[in-house]
């Protein structure tokens, strides 16, 4: 019994030393991998969007490289440590290969999400803070990972989208936004005077310093968009800073309304059509309330 106890440390100590060496080498390689991947990150030197986008791209690439390398290092360390416990590596490696193959078939959606997420970030299709539209989902990007994109929709709800399901995406926060403002007027009113009123309202908005940062081009009066017996529709175009088109359009409509009120320009009148009876074939147009007989 005593001889067995004396021989146990002698037979176990080499295995412990080899296991310790394997563990330390894995830690050192993991540390070297961390330092090396951090060198891939191009840190932004200023607030410019291009520099920030480049930093995010390289940071994502470094994270992916480190994550993959870290798993490979520890997998190799585990295979090297198994013989120290008297386990044959060949069957374990074969079993691990089969398990990986089965996992690959079962996690196809996850793999597709991760690959799509990598290209979304690396190609800078959109980033956190951008307003995007994916199918019927519209909102601001709150969170972005390799697997999913999380949007905050106009109603305040969080919409989670798997990156692998994204086929077409519209980024509404890049370069500029554009909107059109249509105003329908009475068909009998002279168009020339109306266009002058539009130009005055648009010029006032262009020259207002408070809106200079929101405007990129316009507002421009494009002219008569449509014309029929119900009225003529005048269209204006304005190009704005990203995602500011709605507030600019509201301000432009407000100025147009004020200008119309100053010049007493009427909008199109809506007529109400009534049917006298189910057998009648001709509609009768009801006169305005002020002109109805008592």
Quick structural summary:
This protein has 294 residues and is an alpha+beta fold. Helix content is 47%, strand content 21%.
What does this structure look like?
47% of the residues lie in helices and 21% in strands. The chain is built from 6 helices and 10 strands. The strands form 3 sheets. Strands 4-3-2-1-5 form a 5-stranded antiparallel beta sheet. Helix 1 (2-38) runs antiparallel to helix 2 and helix 5 crosses helix 6 (245-263). It starts with a helix and ends in a 9-residue tail after the last strand.
Q: Give the class from helix and strand content and strand pairing.
A: alpha+beta
The strands making up the biggest β-sheet line up spatially as 4-3-2-1-5
Q: What is the count of helical runs?
A: 6
Please tally the β strands and state the result.
10
Ends apart, CA distance between termini: 124 Å
* N to C succession of SSEs: HHHHEEEEEEHEEHEE
- Tell me the Rg in angstroms: 35 Å
Overall average residue pLDDT: 78
How would a textbook summarize the main sheet?
A: 5 strands, antiparallel
- Morphology call: elongated
Are there runs of 5+ residues with pLDDT below 50, and where? 1-8, 270-286, 289-294
């Amino acid at each position: 019994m005593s001889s067995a106890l004396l021989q146990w440390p002698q037979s176990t100590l080499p295995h412990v030393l080899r296991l310790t060496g394997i563990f330390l080498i894995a830690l050192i390689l993991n540390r070297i991998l961390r330092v090396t991947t951090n060198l891939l990150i191009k840190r932004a030197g200023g607030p410019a969007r291009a520099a920030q986008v480049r930093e995010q791209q390289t940071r994502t690439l470094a994270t992916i490289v480190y994550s993959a390398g870290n798993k490979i290092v520890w997998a190799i360390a585990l295979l090297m440590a198994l013989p120290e416990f008297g386990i044959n590596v060949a069957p374990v490696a074969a079993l691990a290969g089969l398990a990986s193959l089965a996992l690959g078939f079962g996690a196809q959606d996850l793999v597709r999400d991760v690959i799509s997420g990598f290209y979304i970030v690396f190609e800078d299709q959109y980033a956190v803070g951008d307003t995007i539209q994916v199918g019927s989902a519209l909102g601001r990007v709150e969170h972005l990972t390799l697997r999913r994109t999380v949007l905050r929709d106009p109603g305040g709800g969080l919409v989670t989208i798997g990156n692998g399901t994204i086929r077409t995406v519209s980024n509404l926060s890049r370069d500029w936004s554009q909107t059109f403002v249509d105003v329908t007027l009475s068909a009998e009113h002279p168009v020339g005077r109306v266009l002058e009123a539009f130009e005055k309202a648009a010029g006032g908005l262009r020259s207002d310093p408070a809106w200079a940062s929101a405007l990129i081009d316009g507002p421009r009066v494009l002219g008569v968009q449509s014309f029929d017996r119900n009225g003529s529709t005048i269209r204006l175009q304005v190009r704005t800073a990203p995602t500011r088109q709605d507030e600019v359009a509201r301000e432009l409509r407000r100025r147009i309304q004020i200008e119309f009120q100053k010049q007493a320009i009427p909008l199109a009148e809506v007529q109400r059509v009534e049917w006298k009876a189910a057998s009648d074939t001709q509609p009768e147009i009801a006169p305005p309330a002020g002109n109805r007989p008592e």
